[in-house]
Amino acid sequence: MGTSDTRGTRERLIDSTRELLWERGYVGTSPKAIQERAAAGQGSMYHHFHGKPDLALAAIGRSAEELRARAEAGFSGPGTVTERITGYLRREREVLKGCPVGRLTQDPDVMADPELRRPVEETFAWLTGRLAALLTEGRASGEFGGGLDPAATATALVAVVQGGYVLARASGSAEVFGRAVDGALGLLAAHSR
Amino acid sequence: MGTSDTRGTRERLIDSTRELLWERGYVGTSPKAIQERAAAGQGSMYHHFHGKPDLALAAIGRSAEELRARAEAGFSGPGTVTERITGYLRREREVLKGCPVGRLTQDPDVMADPELRRPVEETFAWLTGRLAALLTEGRASGEFGGGLDPAATATALVAVVQGGYVLARASGSAEVFGRAVDGALGLLAAHSR
């Protein structure tokens, strides 16, 4: 087996674990199911990972990384703060599947393990901090009025996205996610000068 | 067994199912676990319910009813619309356990069953409609400016609560829920005249 095959197997194992965590949760994801989906043998799995917790940590870390990269691409792009936040909130998402990071908070086994919970916590702390920095920038430049509280507003915006996923799943329709985002942007607009 | 005992058993079965759905999800909740927690025999369980789906439906219906009753108590109370919405958003919640209705949206077995999903969908539709009616009332009375979109804003407020639960669980602290609510109220205040 060459180096590229080995790397391919490792990536397939991570991708399969991400999919299974998303579809079935931690407790419903067996090492056997991961191996089957990745078309990898047991020996190959244990060559790359110590076991299911180690694989789950790699999978969650990868989901968190991608979430950050996608968000940062919007945040550091061109435009006013409102335009960049609008772009972030309105970008395409697989709304009905739920947030690959946020839905882990409803997985009791992930939340009970401090190592698995850490990347989830860090992702939302980063996201909230990044939005708060943008809102602070917008307040300093006069785009928003002085009454806007960057930290609380940033937390509310992250909550709208996470709650938007919940409402979309409840109604079986992505439309309600867009309505929650519209509502948040309408409220933010009231702070614009 | 007298009528009051029979009623007591039925209630205990519903309560136990609610607790187990909350703690372990649908797939992790066995009829045996429900019977054990309710201190009820198998015959007694099947006297009151056809089986696990029937019990789950009663349990979810009860959680939905309680959510509506608690919310309505705040919505129909005294005070301005802003005061009533503030009371609703700030009332005490077991934040770290998650919303007993909202977290069902992350339970694949509940979402896959139209009968079990219906009370979840109806609860959020009712809640959003009720908040939209309040916001419309506040706009008509001049409490809010004409730029406020009641339906979108109501959806955003429900999303903030649901997302607040997600962020609180991610950080293992109820504080972030309060910050999300503060952010939402700050944005709403910008619409006040």
Automatic annotation (TrEMBL), chains A, B:
Keywords: DNA-binding, Transcription, Transcription regulation. Residues 7-67 form the HTH tetR-type domain. Coiled coil: none annotated. Residues 30-49 bind DNA. One of its GO terms (molecular function) is DNA binding. Pfam families: TetR_C_13, TetR_N. InterPro entries: Homeodomain-like_sf, HTH_TetR, Tet_transcr_reg_TetR-rel_C_sf, TetR_C. This is TetR/AcrR family transcriptional regulator. It comes from Streptomyces ficellus.
